[in-house]
């Protein structure tokens, strides 16, 4: 069973993603604050991370940079703001994929599976 960490501050999005992934057989944990996310990643070592860029206390971009200092866990960025500069910088950090809000839950599921297959 793959463990997915959702780092997102929108509780409705967390509920929707969690429901889908648990139905599909994933184990899901969540974090709603950027400043707590890096420690949670270190402690739980998830198989994949879904990361929002707009987080309280520490941006998702900074969270991604800090995670990359110690881990190559696959990261899928979920964001409402997708500037070309940020996209280039995020891919340079080694993210697996990026998905714009609003998004289809089914598309997210397919992208998760795609990233997992590429990383095996």
Protein architecture, described:
This protein is an alpha/beta fold and 120 residues long. It has a single domain, classed as Rossmann fold (3-Layer(aba) Sandwich). It has a five-stranded parallel beta sheet, sandwiched between helices. Helix 1 packs across helix 5 and helix 2 runs parallel beside helix 3. The longest helix has 15 residues. The chain is globular and about 35 Å long.
Topology:
Elements: E1 3-7, H1 11-23, E2 27-31, H2 34-44, E3 48-52, H3 60-68, E4 75-79, H4 84-93, E5 97-100, H5 105-119
Parallel strand pairs: 1-2, 1-3, 3-4, 4-5
Helix pairs in contact: 1-5, 2-3
Keywords for this entry:
5 strands, Rossmann fold, 120 residues, alpha/beta, 48% helix
What's the helical proportion of residues? 40-55%
Distance between the termini: 14 Å
Give the averaged pLDDT, no decimals. 92
Radius of gyration (CA) equals 13 Å
CATH class: Alpha Beta
Which topology does CATH recognise?
A: Rossmann fold
Largest sheet: number of strands, sense, barrel closure: 5 strands, parallel
Instruction: Detail the poorly predicted runs.
Output: none
Query: Using DSSP, what is the number of strands?
Result: 5
What is the CATH superfamily? Response regulator
